[in-house]
Amino acid sequence: MRWEMPKVLLCGGLWSASGRVAGLLALLVVIGCQGPAGQGESSDSLTTDTSNHCVPRCDGETCGDDGCGGECACGNGLECNGQKRCVEADDCEPKCDGTRCDDGCGGTCKCAKDTLCNAKKNCVPICNDSCEAAGAQCGTVCGVDCGTCGPHDSCEKFKCVCEPKCDGTRCDDGCGGLCECAKGTVCNASDECVEPKSCVDTCSGAGRQCGEICGKACGQCDESESCFDRRCHCEPKCDGTSCDDGCGGVCECGAGLQCNAERACVAAAECVDTCDAASYACGPLCGADCGLCKDGESCSFGACKSGWSSLSLRLEQTTKSAGRVQALLSIEFQPNENQPLPRMADLRLSFEGCTDLQVEAVSTGEALEISGKDLFIDSLTSKPWQVMPDGTVQLLVYSSRDAREIGAGRWLAMTVSFVADGATHLWLTRRDRVFAPLAADLAIHEQTFDLPVVVTP
After folding, report:
1. Same structural domain, 311 and 436
2. Range of the domain at 401
3. 188 or 52: whose pLDDT is higher?
4. What pLDDT shows up at residue 11?
């Protein structure tokens, strides 16, 4: 809850209360002040006229610049974080000695000379780990660049982490979380902070299941769900012991473990299920590959299922010349009504059944142009795509100036060529943080956007 700081002039000086108030009402009693040459002043010298003075803006919840050349401090037990917010103090003390590339507190350390950071964040002289083995989306593993985060994300522990931003004008922080509106305003269905008299949206009309709209509660989620963008979403749980996240998705097993037919992660020596015995038609089982699904289907624990997705990869045209297959692909987006829309997308193109895949051209579609978005340019190649260490092709959709949501229509068109070994499958990779903010990412992960297209030579 935000509160307005009392600000008064005391004998020509500015007094500003800052810090967090917790059940304590401070009573300031002014008896009198001595004026120039020791002359007494009346109680009329206590005034709220600050027209000739800069009034610091400190509320106990934010820190840093106070707008008057000074600094806002946090209250007792709080510290200022990187987003200039007052948060609970962390007693963790970073340690860097050149033997590890993490400091034990979520930060990073530099490795000693002639050593590199491996997937376990140890500094070693001989480093053979890959970005894929480390599950890295960004940063450097064994001297290899694992990718670039978007302009509004930071790289923490090899993962791209969205940095929330709140300024009182919007009630979403850009990362799936919520912000408080400025005093005297409420949040409407478009996540804008407006005056209560102009806020006419309703929970049912906006398709919201939780949180608030125009100051009115929209309901509560079940214990297994979380409220994002005022909708209830199943919250996946992965702890390395099960390959089922409880929401229809797949979890990776811990090191040295494999997924069995009961969706449990067990030691490789104990994983004895076979594709035939478990009636698995696709996907992995106990380290074996049980096959691929047909075009338009996705694999869910051994079963090929047809599915619909608002985001889709489409095959527009194929040609063959000089032993290479050329494929024209498009990425389309047709969201459901009330589906949370993204402001940024990190798309990865995966492929199987071909060699020497090369991207020849990529262009943006009308939907991206309308929303003011563009593709991130790789600084090494000056191309609007990047080939990742695992061979996938990254297409990073963003804007550093325009925060509008990306709507329906064609997003991208791209031409790829490759040497086909047979039927070639191409698909959009299912991975963490495909969309931002988080509400849009959770919504797209409930859909089968990773259905492959099949190119036959």
Report:
1. yes
2. 307-455
3. 188
4. 32
Q: What is the pLDDT of residues 52-76, one digit of tens each?
A: 446 666 767 677 777 676 778 887 7
Q: pLDDT of 119-173, one tens digit each?
A: 778 898 888 887 776 667 788 888 888 877 766 677 777 777 777 788 889 887 7
Same domain for 350 and 317: yes
The reply to whether 354 and 434 lie within a common domain is: yes
Domain count, the chain: 3
Q: Which residues contact 158 (CB under 8 A, 6 or more apart)?
A: 131, 134, 135, 136, 137, 138, 139, 141, 146
pTM over 0.70: no
**More confident call, 5 vs 120:** 120
